[in-house]
Amino acid sequence: MEFHASSPCPCRALDAEKPAYSRCCQPFHEHRASGEVLPDTAEQLMRSRYSAFVLGLAGYLLLSWHETTRPADLQLDGELHWEGLQIVKTRSGGAQAVRGVVEFIAHYAQDGQRGSQHEVSTFVRENGAWFYLDAL
Ligand SMILES: [Zn+2]
């Protein structure tokens, strides 16, 4: 998929302010393996995982998935066209927290039909890195 670092970040497609990918989720995507740049909050991790879905970055999704719930393999559905992320509510998950909960709605289109995925996700932080744990 062709995507430019100066394009608006996929996670902000529905927002009034649209920071560039290079100033939003890209640093997290590029530095997860080294741990040099990590999301401060559970919401930032949630956003970066949504953007990874949009951009087909299965490796990032697996790296940011807690080892106790992570699938062995991940096939992304290329038929889904993600259109935007709406953060409904966050609970805890701040810069000093070790657990966080993020409620979100992810909008997509498939075969010309619009749909959305409404989920409440839980996150844990270990050694400074946030991980997706599971959905409530
Ligand atoms: Zn982003």
From TrEMBL:
Coiled coil: none
Domain YchJ-like middle NTF2-like: 41-135
Domain of life: Bacteria
Segments traversing the membrane: none
Name of protein: SEC-C motif-containing protein
Record organism: Glutamicibacter protophormiae
